[in-house]
Amino acid sequence: MRVEILCTGDEILTGKTINTNYSHIARRLVEVGLGVHWGTTVGDDRGSLLQAFRQAGERADAVIVNGGLGPTVDDLSQEVAAEACGVPLVLSDYWMKRMEESYARRGRVMPPNNRKQAMLPQDAEFIDNPIGTACGFAVTIGKARFFFTPGVPREMRRMVDEQVIPRLLALSGITGVTRLKRFHSFGIGESRADGMLSDIPAFQDGSIKLGFQAHYPELETKLAVRGDSEAALAAVLAPVEAEVRRRLGNFVIAEDDQTLEGVVLGALLAKGLSVATVETASGGHLAARLAPQPGAEKVFRKSVVARNPAELGIAGANDDAARTAATALRAETGASHALALLVEMDDGPERPDMGGTVCIGIADADGAVTRPARLVGNRDWVRAGAVEMALDCLRRHLLGLPVDERIDFERR
Amino acid sequence: MRVEILCTGDEILTGKTINTNYSHIARRLVEVGLGVHWGTTVGDDRGSLLQAFRQAGERADAVIVNGGLGPTVDDLSQEVAAEACGVPLVLSDYWMKRMEESYARRGRVMPPNNRKQAMLPQDAEFIDNPIGTACGFAVTIGKARFFFTPGVPREMRRMVDEQVIPRLLALSGITGVTRLKRFHSFGIGESRADGMLSDIPAFQDGSIKLGFQAHYPELETKLAVRGDSEAALAAVLAPVEAEVRRRLGNFVIAEDDQTLEGVVLGALLAKGLSVATVETASGGHLAARLAPQPGAEKVFRKSVVARNPAELGIAGANDDAARTAATALRAETGASHALALLVEMDDGPERPDMGGTVCIGIADADGAVTRPARLVGNRDWVRAGAVEMALDCLRRHLLGLPVDERIDFERR
Asked: Mutate which of B2, B4, B17, B38 to disrupt the A interface (most A C-beta within 10 Å)?
């Protein structure tokens, strides 16, 4: 089945807003096995919209349209869809009532221009929006089924997952339920991860689709699976999930919606521990990962950020300095764990092998451990890698895993 | 003139990579007065590319194609362009020599598959890429002139500015030179800024195009102007630039490529001053703006990040606490200026009027000044606004401007 995405709106067309809705919809289509074949962007312009609907209706089997369902005059999607179908717009009493109730619940009266959002092409299929006033709908233009979704990201995301994708799967003859299992790792590059996992039989025979997405310094490994039922799906997924977890091993920092900082804070909270951090050259980025998290007020004691190690009475980024900095901070703050991240960036103009020397120190009641590393890349790259490595070292230390396992981003 | 953007590549089509190249090209087209009328995204697929070239060739006068000029087999732009034009690909001896020389300068031998990058459609117009191996070219397909650019962002950006836009302006009959003047402000919303500026005659008569781009908490005000010569352009722009600067007044935090943190560091460096910071609830985000900047090693002394004000021996986010925290930090670090940012986020589940109470303190040799504020929004919104406000207060203090001018994002 050939699926297209059609995004509308002057803000998107003119580049004022970066089109993250497009990439979200496209990724979801790929994840459920539908794929995406064409993307179109047009502005809030009647002529362009009509032409785009007609051209997509000739090329595609299904089209997801995003945007243009708002209450203002430049929101044209319903109107132009009706024109392309050759039908009038008809007021949906049901949606008017839903909108009025929603305003009433918040003690407000619905503005008159919201009525426009309840005008749908005659005989359109209604697509529910449980969290907004822009309702979706589906119509057929040319040979394609068109699904209309609002531009507000959280409304679009929920409607695509709950309303549009099930209809697309039904249209395509793909039946059953889908699930996406995600592993987040630090320290393995995409090609190495692919080499470590691709010979698993379920990936070879296509019963589970393996995919990767690199967001340096993290790598996301995705397992997309479809089954006739939740039980059948779980039966296929469970052993493969366990095998992936085993093979990626200590490099798995989090799963699904977890984050590395969340896992670290969770481990500290669970054991009634606390933490303080000190960093040089990473300029507060380490503290900025931990301190704002929910629950951090119970765990996070204090952070010290120095641009120059001399401010801390130490020199360089080596084992001695990291041990000294962590131990001193632990004594000063009374935290159960102190984490020191020392970074010395290379001097001079940027060149290909440029990078930074890193040393991480962790002090606890048993003493201090250190982890030196040499990271290559520009300053932002080294800083991001060093902060991730510091958090990962603390995670490993708290979970009793080795802190000095070699990672793909370091040179030794 | 009708201009379209056509982006190619599976990574973009499938949403794996967010299409920031599209928004960059579109913004540049709008800024020089050309506008953009249609966007298309297709994958590395011969059939889709050919169809997309032909359809755009029927709709547009000019098309910027991005991507597909690399050395690998899935890079198809030259090949499909030649097919669409009905001409063979021909080796450019000039580009082969340029690539070989570029490899030789780095002491390397050019891999054989780079030869593909010198194969251009017969009679194509050569478009120089001064910083990469993917050369650009222009051909005519249907009624449109197509400009091919590489997907590597820094190469694309330079080629669009230096090579493509001048050609598009010539095609469109627009002559002369263009300039974009940018003001960055903090504390004024887009609609108020529009109200403050839109009656300036040059904006009314269209001789200068006024535009805004909000990146909360900052607002970018853009003046796009075109003239027959640099001198003519400067003559038009200079008085309007001065008038905009006067009207936006103390809210202008930076201009053009400057940043707020850069302006603050510059003011400190120029006067031989130094700074230390202390923050609660903003979790290191204040330090993360200042400490990593070039030149910060001469100015930035130390930062303390506490989740809980009690860690600093203070309570709440009020004038007394801010004064105490700033004065103590100045004494401890010996910095000429100490900046304290205290934030108390509202408790409980998120609700529309939720926000945070903020107090900023600045201590210097003359004593301490404070700036209380109430910011509304979710935690991320309040944190971003509070960090910006702290940096802006320090900027204002260093430049002798009032630190307590009311901003649009606060409630009093």
From this structure: B38
Domain A3-172: which CATH class?
Answer: alpha beta
User: ipTM of the predicted structure?
Assistant: 0.71
| pLDDT band, residue A77 (cuts 50/70/90) | very high
CA distance B242 to chain A (A): 26
Contact B16 A35 (CB under 8 A): no
Q: How many CB pairs under 8 A join A and B?
A: 175
Q: Quote the Cα angle for A371-A372-A375, to 5°.
A: 125
Q: What is the pLDDT of residues A377-410, one digit of tens each?
A: 888 889 999 999 999 999 999 999 999 999 988 8
What's domain B177-255's architecture?
A: 2-Layer Sandwich (3.30)
CATH superfamily of A261-398: CinA-like (3.90.950.20)
Q: Which of A14, A156, A289, A379 would best serve as a mutation to test chain B binding (most B beta carbons within 10 A)?
A: A14
| Domain boundaries A178-255, corresponding CATH code | 3.30.70.2860
CB atoms within 10 A of CB A47: 10
B131 contacts: CB under 8 Å, gap ≥ 6:
B154, B155, B158
* Interface contact B51-A39, CB threshold 8 A: no
What are the pLDDT digits (tens) for A15-25? Answer: 988 999 999 99
Q: Specify whether domain B262-399 bears CATH 3.40.630.30.
A: no
How many whole angstroms separate alpha carbon A90 and alpha carbon B241? Answer: 50
Give the tens place of pLDDT for each residue, B368-385: 999 999 998 888 889 999
Is it true that the peptide bond before A217 is cis, omega within 30 degrees of 0?
yes
